Amino acid sequence: MSDSPIDPILGRVPSGIYILTVRRSDQETGDQETGVQETGMLASWVMQAGFDPPSVTVAVKQGRYVGEWIAAGEKFVLNVLGENHKAMLGHFGRGFDLGEPAFDGIDIQRSESGVPVLSEAIGYLECEASGHVDSGDHRIFLARVINGRLSSEEKPMVHVRNSGAHY
Known about the structure:
The protein has 167 residues and is mainly β. The protein has one domain (14-151): Pnp Oxidase, Chain A, CATH 2.30.110. The chain has helices at residues 7-11, 65-71, 86-93, and strands at 15-16, 18-24, 37-43, 46-50, 55-61, 76-80, 108-110, 116-118, 123-135, 138-150, 158-159. Strands 3-2-6-9-10-5-4 form a 7-stranded antiparallel beta sheet. Strands 1-11 form a two-stranded antiparallel sheet. It has a two-stranded antiparallel sheet with strand order 7-8.
């Protein structure tokens, strides 16, 4: 139940649904294949933030290791989900512990920098963070889009919450 009069209207701010994927190699040895870690997470607070260079913002909850990887300079991919990709919500919405395989049973391709791209996505944006600001319980990344592709003309999935006080 909402305690604030702004919660119901804040929840009505629509957002897309994305799967953010990221890959990290062993920083100590520089080894690009052994020590590689990959994961994915559900992201909905994403928006375009510039034309030249093409830029987006994405919010990651404070304390998530994904945010630490992005802050450390790892490239990431925003996979745009279509209206028929609801199964992806259950798979990626639960989150993954560090080291837990995120892509078992999921068909992936690779971006130019090796980040997983979901084959079923209607398209993707490959990004690298150019800065961030901490906003209470989330870290907001400003990222330059360095690559991308539209794979389908399907309509993107849109999410509207009942309350702006929680997911």
